[in-house]
Design goal:
- Helices cover about 0% and strands about 75% of the residues.
- The protein has no helices and seven strands.
- The strands form two sheets. The protein has a five-stranded antiparallel β-sheet with strand order 1-2-3-4-7, with no helix packed on it. It has a two-stranded antiparallel sheet with strand order 5-6.
- Strand 5 and strand 6 form a beta hairpin.
- It is elongated, with a radius of gyration of 20 Å.
- The protein starts with a strand and ends with a strand.
- The mean pLDDT is about 90.
C-alpha cells in the first residue's frame, strides 16, 4: 500500500507498507571447517518505507526512497538434524529511481 501526498504538486512525498512472505535460506554454513546448517524457512515478511518523487516533466519523474524489510524469526535445523535455531532477517535500502508516465 502506498499513500501519495501532494499529487497535484511537483514534489510527491509518499509512505508505503506491505505484508507478504519470504523464503530465507542458509546455504552450506560452516564454522572452522565444520558444517552447521543448510536449511530454509518460509516466513511472513513486512516492509515499511518513505520517499520523495519530483516531476521533471509531464512524462517523467525522479525519486529517492528508503525501505526497511524484515521477517520474524525464521527457524532452521542444524546439520546434525536435531539442533534448531532461529535468527532475525532485516535489510535497509535506499533507492533512486526514474518513472516514465505513459
Amino acid at each position: 500500500v502506498v499513500f501519495d501526498f501532494a499529487k497535484d504538486e511537483k514534489f510527491h512525498p509518499f509512505l508505503l507498507a506491505g505484508v507478504g512472505g519470504a523464503q530465507i535460506s542458509i546455504n552450506d554454513a560452516a564454522s572452522g571447517g565444520t558444517a552447521f546448517a543448510d536449511d530454509d524457512d518460509f516466513v511472513v515478511a513486512y516492509q515499511l518505507g518513505a520517499g520523495l518523487n519530483y516531476d521533471v516533466s509531464d512524462e517523467m519523474m525522479i525519486g529517492i526512497s528508503y525501505r526497511f524489510f524484515g521477517t520474524p524469526n525464521p527457524e532452521f535445523t542444524g546439520s546434525d538434524g536435531s539442533t534448531t535455531f532461529d535468527m532475525e532477517y532485516q535489510s535497509h535500502s535506499i533507492l533512486l529511481g526514474i518513472t516514465f508516465k505513459l
